[in-house]
Design goal:
The chain is an alpha/beta fold. Helix content is about 35%, strand content about 20%. A hairpin with a 2-residue loop joins strand 15 (about 400) and strand 16. Helix 5 (about 155-165) crosses helix 7.
């Protein structure tokens, strides 16, 4: 079958696409920017198409000739995510029906009890499910609770809360029951659902074999990770809003994403039926402890396929740089540094590509940390997203508060800032050959201010650039020469 995978740059879509091909399906992967899929290992086996779910015309060629269409996108983390997801689902449903798609598959969230008012996150997921079920195309909605897997936002929340807080005062929702499921088993269900009979048109609850409270999940995680038992004290007044800030302060998950995730945890998330077992063997689902053990093994071995941060932010094509022909004009601030390096270009490139994450930014680490904390305080992503791989970067990946916008191995790394700032910012680092086996390092920071606040921001940070950016260029050169 030919399968369209939307959200192919995201956490689930990026793992589903290669497994569908391994199962014998033809995969067409949809992204706003084909460049973001250029470097993924499975790209040569798939058909990559560009399209935007907010633009129905772009979906026509994407859905043409498709048997099964996976709807795996959401706008979580954006202020108007409910409107965006509603519009995307309506466009997708209409074009899928017009193009004769045989089945739509959607990975949604659990349904809270009827007597409870759902969080905005779950309300949006339920609305998208209804839109797709009303499309006229046979549709299956797989409702998954907390997904346990290396790189998932839910797992990162659990991991960092447990590892960093041996004693914690928690909201009362840590006593709610949850039926977590391993990402491996979610993917198995999504693949199996492609072969559902045409008359199957409904939702399915997913869940692993263990039903636990969130507090029990933290204790079980601690045991698997070799940590001491955690002291957990639930506190009634801690609202979901305060809880999201608590999560944002301790984990890499920013407030904008933590808030809807926490809002969903105020409801119990337990499977009410197990009808999916007719198509997938539930007795082979991983238990919670084994799912955690495998996730930690992937993290330890630096073998994390996809991360939640890969899908955060707009899945959009790269914005034009101020130096590009498409640039529309305006004020541009730049900071350019060049250094001759007594090392070959290959050695210089290894240092450039190793920037960020655990390796840091090669200059004034305290200043970078303070800037990261300030960004977190105003709802930004800060520095805690780190990097997926210790040695390699790919287009579209998150790198601390940056996004990899372009990479030409051995030549150029361009990063686009995703911090909270009044303007748009880029950082470029490039390597070029010099005479007699040497190389040249060039570093360029660009900032396009937005309003008076943007101009004031640049003026305020300019004195620090002389220290931070010059030190960064100097230490990158020294690192290459010492390698």
């Amino acid at each position: 079958m030919r399968c369209l995978v939307t959200g192919a740059t995201g956490y689930i879509g990026g793992r589903l696409a290669p497994r569908l091909m391994d199962a014998g399906h033809d995969v067409r992967a949809l992204s706003r920017s084909a460049a973001r899929l250029r470097d993924v290992p499975w790209a040569p086996r798939a058909e990559i198409v560009e399209g935007d779910l907010s633009d129905p015309a772009s979906l026509v060629p994407a859905l043409d000739g498709v048997d099964v269409a996976y709807f795996l996108v959401h706008s979580l983390g954006q202020r108007d995510f409910e409107r965006r997801d509603r519009e995307a689902a309506r466009n997708f449903a209409r074009v899928a029906y017009e193009k004769g798609v045989r089945r739509i598959l959607y990975l949604g969230g659990p349904e809270p009890p009827p007597a409870e008012k759902p969080s905005a996150h779950l309300r949006s997921r339920a609305e998208v499910a209804r839109i797709l079920l009303d499309s006229g195309v046979p549709t299956a909605v797989l409702r998954a609770p907390v997904i346990i897997g290396s790189g998932s936002a839910s797992f990162e929340m659990l991991r960092y809360l447990t590892e960093r807080l041996p004693v914690m005062v928690t909201p009362r929702w840590v006593r709610n029951r949850i039926q977590p499921i391993a990402v491996r088993d979610v993917l198995r269900c999504l693949i199996a659902a492609a072969g559902l009979p045409p008359d199957v048109h409904r939702g399915f609850d997913l869940g692993g074999p263990d039903v636990l409270t969130y507090a029990e999940m933290m204790q079980r995680y601690a045991r698997v990770a070799g940590l001491r038992r955690r002291i957990i004290v639930p506190l009634r007044p801690l609202s979901p809003w305060l809880s999201s800030h608590w999560v944002g302060a301790v984990t890499p998950v920013p407030n904008a994403i933590a808030r809807p995730l926490v809002g969903s945890l105020i409801h119990e998330a337990v499977a009410h039926e197990h009808d999916i077992a007719e198509f997938v063997r539930e007795d082979e689902f991983l238990g919670f402890d084994e799912a955690v053990r495998r996730a930690l093994g992937k993290i330890r071995d630096a073998d994390v396929e996809t991360r939640w941060s890969t899908a955060s932010g707009a899945d959009a094509a790269a914005e034009p740089l101020p130096s590009d022909p498409t640039w529309s004009g305006g004020t541009i601030y730049t900071d350019v540094r060049c250094r001759e390096v007594a090392a070959p270009v290959e050695a210089l490139w290894r240092v450039i590509e190793g920037v960020g994450g655990e390796n840091g930014w090669y200059s004034f680490p305290l200043a970078w940390s303070v800037r990261g904390w300030l960004d977190r305080l105003v709802g930004g992503v800060g520095l805690r997203r780190g990097r997926r791989d210790r040695h390699r970067l790919h287009v579209g990946e998150a790198l601390d508060w940056w996004r990899v916008e372009e990479i030409r191995p051995g030549e150029l790394l361009r990063l686009r800032a995703e911090m909270r700032v009044s303007g748009r910012a880029w950082l470029e680092m490039s390597a070029s050959p010099g005479p007699d086996g040497t190389s040249v390092y060039r570093q360029r920071a660009l900032f396009v201010p937005r309003g008076l606040a943007g101009h004031a921001y640049w003026a305020g940070v300019l004195p620090f650039h002389g220290v931070i950016f010059s030190g960064m260029a100097r230490n990158i050169a020294r690192g290459a020469e010492a390698s």
